[in-house]
Amino acid sequence: MLGKAWQTGLKKTFASLLSATLLVPFTLPLTGNEAQAQRGRIPLVRDAETEDLLKDYAAPIFKVAGIGNSPAEIILVNDKSFNAFVPDSRRMFINIGVILEAEDPGEVIGVIAHETGHIAGRHLVRLRQAAANAQIMSVIGMVLGAGAAVAGAASGSGQAAQAAGVAALGSPQLGQRSLLSYQRGEEASADRAALRYLNATKQSAKGMLTVFERFAEQQVFSARFADPYAVSHPMANERYRNLAVDAQKSAYYDKPTSAALKARHDMVRAKLMAFASHPNEVARKYPRSDTSMPAQYARAVAAMKARSRKAVDMIDALIRNQPSNPHFQELKGQAFMEMGRPKQAVQPFRRAVALHPNEGQFLIWLGYALVASNDNGALPEAERMLKAGLQRDPNSGIGYSQLAIAHARQGDTAQADVATAKGLMVQGDFDAAKRYAKRAQQNLKRGTPAWLQADDIVSYRPPQSLQRRR
Length: 470
What we know:
- The protein has helices at 4-19, 33-38, 48-65, 96-101, 105-120, 123-154, 158-167, 174-200, 206-218, 236-249, 259-276, 279-285, 293-305, 311-321, 326-338, 342-355, 360-372, 379-392, 397-409, 413-427, 430-442, 449-459, and strands spanning 24-25, 73-77, 84-86, 91-95.
- By secondary structure, it is mostly helical.
- Strands 1-3-4-2 form a four-stranded mixed beta sheet.
- Strand 3 and strand 4 (91-95) form a beta hairpin.
- The chain is globular, with a radius of gyration of 25 Å.
- Mean pLDDT is 78; it is low at 1-40, 127-182 and 219-233.
- TPR repeats lie at residues 326-359.
């Protein structure tokens, strides 16, 4: 029997290795987002228009996959690389790079269908079981590197611990290869599931194949040196070959994308490109000679980011073309906020809310503008808008911070502390959240809703994976 010190080392070693495998990504090469997600540092981005589009892409897929009643939340990652992954059955992370690179909605839908295959197939649960089997097979080899892995974890270096964990598998590498082979099988299973979902929803798999073609081209050189039995995903050309025949047999393979959906995709793609790129890059991709709506949109966003006086005029031109588009009204409100003119931002945000009353982000923007206008008479309305917005979008840190300001300016410091604590919880700063919640309780009547909310925060114990390393 192994001594307790060695057993502890083994557990930590394998935990380091396992933490890098439990997030199931779409791409073959990992971008590092998976590790960032484990540490709670993943760079997220919020945009109502993009989120609405992704929800519409996913809804029919989720329905036929049997998860429509409890769909996964789709979370947008501020990363230009082409990647998507699921950490559990409740969340799907998609990089903005997926949309930026996808020329057709079918490419994004294919990615969503694949990740849905992982969720519906309960691959994350079974991966843990396979990992346990691999641990048994690797126990002797892992002992050799256990000390190094523990040292890496203790130093706070996740990469060091992961590297040591892989090295600890030793020369046979039987356990590692078994686990990675299992992952390759799950990737193939998710690919097959994606084909079924696309057929069931009468959509073409052409976009999905386009993605694998792109990956295969990128791997032409690297594949020469890759050991296909030592990677967690099948090589892209292998995945393409395995899918192409069945995909092309589908009655829907040549079905064109809806023109309306393609138009929305192009608009979101232009918007994200403008937000994520330097204005010079936007000007090169969307020159003034391009008078299309996506090009006008991109240039208007770039002007807003630069706080140009022309931004509002450019956005007004978009509004004249599509007066019922709430996202143009939102952008106009943002432009005024960027220019330090919150009172003028109120009206376009009101219009956005009128056009799309159930969008939490619009309600929060309106509340934010009302608070920033420094009109004490507007604070009760700001409070109502922010609370309504947070009911629909409870993960908005800025919503809680503005609600705290609204409460404080109305003299309700206890409620301000509760709102601040909730915002800190959203940010993952649990220690600071607890301090504010305790302070709030001192000024609240025991048993009231606000006191109970604060007590929930004080009593909260984060999962071990989210606890800060000391």
